[in-house]
Design goal:
About 5% of the residues lie in helices and about 40% in strands. The chain is mostly beta strands.
Length: about 180
């Protein structure tokens, strides 16, 4: 397992699992506690979402949960933004292409929000969490098109949930973000 630590956003790591090919297809070990031992984290929940093209889920996060994210089938753009007010990378963003070809995984640190846009006709998106999900009321939701984040999503009218369509812009929730 190869990995790269992001030089700007503390705690953000990109993993490149080994993919074994033969006449039957592919084999990928997507998680092995030994490969991730340096994180000193215990993942307690696995989640999947299945979505269609132009669905944009997020930007969501909280001050305590780390997420290990990957696209198992299809192709997505994963956006990550650092909302930790005391971080030197406060408001830094990253955009990653995750798909069933490169098999990359991204560890999103606590205090950062993430969202993903489906580029393929459909996708299966997976993430492990270090805390059990306790409901949307305990998370921060930020508008996907927040001008402070400037994430180039490459879509004009994404399909959004009611929660995401009604998410606030950072300028309207600065006090809440300071607690991250």
């Amino acid at each position: 397992m190869k990995y790269t630590v992001d030089p700007d956003i503390a705690g953000l790591v990109v993993f490149e699992p080994e993919v074994f090919h033969d006449v039957r297809g592919e084999y990928i070990n997507t998680f092995n506690v030994k490969d991730y031992a340096f994180l000193d984290e215990k993942f307690v929940e696995d989640d999947f979402s299945i979505s269609r093209k132009n669905v944009l889920r997020g930007m969501h996060g909280d001050p305590e949960t780390k997420k290990l994210i990957q696209c198992l089938y299809g192709s997505i753009l994963l956006g990550v933004a650092d909302l930790r007010a005391d971080s030197p990378s406060y408001l830094y963003t990253r955009l990653y292409a995750l798909n069933d070809k490169n098999r990359h995984q991204v560890l999103v640190p606590e205090g950062c929000v993430n969202g993903h846009l489906v580029l393929s006709d459909s996708c299966i998106f997976s993430y492990k969490q270090t805390k059990l999900y306790s409901g949307a009321a305990n998370q921060i939701s930020v508008r996907y098109d927040d001008p402070w984040l400037e994430i180039p999503w490459r879509v004009e009218n994404p399909l959004l949930s009611e929660r995401d369509a009604n998410a606030l812009y950072l300028k309207d929730m600065e006090e809440k973000c300071r607690k991250l």
